[in-house]
Amino acid sequence: MGFSIALIVFSGLLMLLVLMHKGKGGGLSDMFGGGMQSSIGGSSVAERNLDRITVVVGLLWFACIVVLGLLMKLNS
To answer: What is the pLDDT of residues 26-38, one digit of tens each?
Structure first.
């Protein structure tokens, strides 16, 4: 039960983190206004930290999926 809740939390957090990334151009982010310059962008240090946090949350999300799969396999 705890891993299911963790998976839901990590999924929501991962979606928010991915949406916070600055658009690189030419994709869907430009279509929805992501290509506009804004003062919210921040420095490159902030962008690198956001990248690192996104990778860590992605790895935790993947680990939750693996653990849930193993638990389901062992319970059946």
So the answer is: 555 555 665 555 5
